[in-house]
Design a protein that fits this description.
6 strands; alpha/beta; single chain; Uracil-DNA Glycosylase, subunit E
């Protein structure tokens, strides 16, 4: 039943046309394409969550990249941020391989699930508050279906804010890399800087810093 419900939710997400600006942008990008991907088909639709329905760990990012998830159809797949995410999950034992290039590349997550606060690629990577709010019910429904989640890892301030709204964390704590927040129900949030090129190229986020988040998340997931 749980898997069927996630499948139904995935189908609803893929068929969403609620935000005209995002629909126009995702389809424009899919039509014009980046030169390096001009011979590849683009997904050009909302991108659902991906991973293990029995996950103990849930990652929440901002939104699909225009030439990443919007191209491949899988969250954090085919872009530099995804390279960091899945390599780190592999090192932590949550992924069967360290790379994610396409939706059919054989990647499997074990004990982890990856989602985004907004499901369509936004212009300049900046959704409006209204677009953010229209997408929030999808994350709420995912959380309700992922009943085994013990630890949440927001990737960046936007993902953190989205999780705090959905989990009703009040007052909202201050975001910071490595910050740990125990929720009222005993579950945990472990915060991470977003693995954007702006952060990884400048050394704001390093591999050891990123790995420490998932090491700690695995430790906290075992606490009952």
């Amino acid at each position: 039943m749980q898997r069927d419900s996630l499948s139904k939710l995935t189908a609803e997400i893929i068929d969403c046309f609620a935000c005209p600006r995002l629909v126009a942008w995702r389809e424009q990008v899919a039509s014009e394409k980046r030169a390096s991907y001009r011979d590849e088909p683009y997904w050009g639709r909302p991108v659902p969550g991906f991973g293990d329905p029995d996950a103990e760990l849930l990652l929440v990012g901002l939104a699909p990249a225009a030439h990443g998830g919007n191209r491949t159809g899988r969250v954090f797949t085919g872009d530099r941020s995804g390279d960091w995410v899945f390599a780190a999950l592999h090192r932590a034992g949550y992924a069967n391989q360290p790379t994610s290039a396409s939706a059919d590349d054989g990647l499997e997550l074990r004990g982890a699930y990856v989602a985004a606060a907004v499901r369509c690629a936004p212009p300049a990577n900046k959704p409006t508050p209204a677009e953010r709010d229209r997408c929030q019910p999808y994350l709420e429904r995912e959380l309700a279906l992922l009943r085994s989640v013990r630890v949440f890892v927001p990737l960046g301030q936007f993902g953190f804010d989205a999780l705090c709204r959905v989990l009703r964390v009040r007052p909202k704590p201050r975001f910071g890399h490595g910050a740990e927040i125990q929720l009222e129900d005993g579950r945990w949030m472990v915060c991470s800087y977003h693995p954007s090129q702006q952060n990884t190229f400048t050394g704001v986020l390093t591999e050891p810093m990123f790995d420490a988040v998932f090491t700690r998340a695995r430790e906290l997931a075992s606490v009952r």
